[in-house]
Amino acid sequence: MNKPFRVLVVNLTQQKSKVEFFDTRKQWLGGSGLAAGLFENYADFDQDPFHPSQPVIFAIGPLTGLFPLMSKTIMSFMSPYNGQYAESHGGGRSALALRFAGYDALVITGKAQRLTCLGFGSKEINIQDVHFLKGLDIFKTGKVLRTLKPRNPGHRSILRIGPAGENLISYACVNVDTYRHFGRMGGGAAMGAKNLKGIIISGDSSLELPSDTLKEYNKVYQSIYKTITESGAVKKYHNLGTPENLIPLNELKALPWRNLQSTHDPEIEGISGETFAQDLLLRQVACAGCPVGCIHIGLLRERFGDEHEYLYRQVSYDYEPIFGVGSMLGVTTASGVLTLLEEVEKLGLDAISAGVALAWATEALEKGIVTTEQTIAELAFGDVHAYVEALACLSGKINDFYLHLGKGALNAAYVYGGEDFACVLGQEMAGYATGENYYVSQALGFRHSHLDTGAYSFDQEEQARDMEVAIKYMQDQEYYRILMCSAAGCLFGRKAYPREVFIKALKSIGLEYSEEELDATILSIQAHRWAIKFRTGFKPEEIKIPKRFSEVETWKGKTDTDYMMKLKEKYQEVLREVAARHKFQEK
Amino acid sequence: MKILKASNMKRCIGCYSCSLACARNIHKSLSWKRSGIRIHSSGGISTGYEATVCLACDPPPCAPVCPTEALRPKKGGGVILKKSLCISCSECATACPVDAIYFDPDNQMPVFCIHCGRCVPFCPHDCLEMVGSAKEVPDE
């Protein structure tokens, strides 16, 4: 139970690595908790995000590989987007590969002199010079990295950045195994600052299962697997996938369109989950260790010759990316969305932030705040080709305008004006214009994500404007989500993993927690994460909810600005109280 | 006798539930290598997945190369291993024409499919099935 975590620590400046044993499982559980513990241990709170000393951390949890849907890796770093402690979650094969490489976490510090790829398995570590990959896109990079060590096809996970990460765009992402990402808060730029183009994790070892609890373990496994595959609890994620939300949210007047100038549009059919599934869905893919298969791959077919000459690409899509480069940019065809998603993918950008930033730029151009000399591309809602051009400019920091836009829409708005319509809530908004609770929750949330508290769902409840109820909902949800993310599970598995199931699952592998002990652990992790976030500069009272959010109309009617501002003020206090529970140790 | 066939790999979503089930139930391990069925992509996930699994050759080329007769042909195809006789020479793995025997470097033992079918119910896409072995299907 109190076995320390086994952590691979790599220093890219010195080109050295070592195996370290870190603290205890009881205190940090794993995943999100472990990442926070490691961050406090390795980070320099007073240096900027691109300082070589800052760590980039990847952590898995106690249930990784042992149970279905426990398939996430938690990446933590000092965010290039806001200079604060940040977490981003990714799937693919990354979590199981790290488990089978024999580590609970990977910590990377320092900065390589030349562009580098780190490769490791259970019996090898290679720090490889890949200067020849400079500027290469995600796809070409992937092809080359597959030829590097360790060679273990099918049982490796390959993490890589594109030009956006190398160019330190604040919302560059890390691509994982072609179709998954550490998407938000600029993890790609954190790797770029280390001259780290890729990471190859080879899952080449096996672990013995604990013989004394094997019978119980198999029983618990079987029961969870059955819930997932037979109860329909996660069926929607496989069927149409998350894009099944597009039509319902549009009907609710809660889908942001054209930089949130509206929340409903009759042209929704063109980009609905149903349209994607019927016309373009090629197949589904899963993260390793998850039988759900929520990753939807679309077929992008393009005619390139006068005769019937076609080329095709396989592009993954989900609700959020469809919102980001679809409805938010006024793109109303599924193939148009895939064209933009492929471009975003190739360059290594976060699809949500890139889409929302370009939506702001489009409106800024419409209003004459910026000119086409600055935007180069003639941005207009719905114009796919203009956005393809703009994405290349953005990832290449081609001029001052894109340099500012690459730091976020609000950052560009500070320079050029147009703060009122920058759809930024801590970071570029996610696709839920559901109401006040969600706006406050994302603006103040730990990851500035819709997944921090799920308040978009609370917005749809009857008591949606009862502040006490809202805060309790958000705090309860945050508790559960920290538990899920510290076990390093996928949040799509929420219905299969209530708290009592976690306790059973942990016990079946020899990690015994009483309900009280587990609660204490999660509350301590919560306090710790928030304390680091405050310590690295989080000032909730300075976070603005731009005017556009007050103008939004949902099925409930206009935004209740008074309620929203009171909720924000109250929630700020709650978060400060949470953070105050943690006491930093002297280093 | 029935044998395992990965008949519908075009449907595979790459969840590895089959490998994990074999490792868990047969080898009491957490592994995606120490398993009778191993799933691979080749050249990235966009190319889809393949299964590496014993084809239940009859006669099996891996058995005669075993110097201690630890590996013996099984009626209907495939082999059985008598662990106590194995000297960990790995000749069987080298002889397998389809790389279906994984020689585990940790415990120095060959790992291959025993056609027990325990992985089949864990495939969410029905890629796997148990079918009658060649011997039971009359030659045309």
Describe this structure in words.
The complex is a heterodimer of chains A (587) and B (140). By secondary structure, chain A is an alpha+beta fold. Chain A is built from 24 helices and 20 strands. Chain A has a six-stranded mixed β-sheet with strand order 2-1-6-3-4-5. In chain A, β19 (553-554) and β20 form a beta hairpin. In chain A, α7 runs antiparallel to α21 (499-508), α11 (319-325) runs parallel beside α13 (351-366) and α12 (334-347) runs parallel beside α15. The longest helix of chain A is centred in the C-terminal third of the chain and has 21 residues, at 515-535. Chain B starts with a strand and ends in an 8-residue tail after the last strand. Chain B has 140 residues and is an alpha+beta fold. Chain B has helices at residues 17-25, 91-95, and strands spanning 2-5, 29-30, 38-41, 49-52, 71-73, 79-81, 102-104, 109-111, 129-132. β13 (207-208) of chain A pairs antiparallel with β2 (29-30) of chain B.
What is this entry, summarized?
The complex is a heterodimer of chains A (587) and B (140). With 587 residues, chain A is of the alpha+beta class.
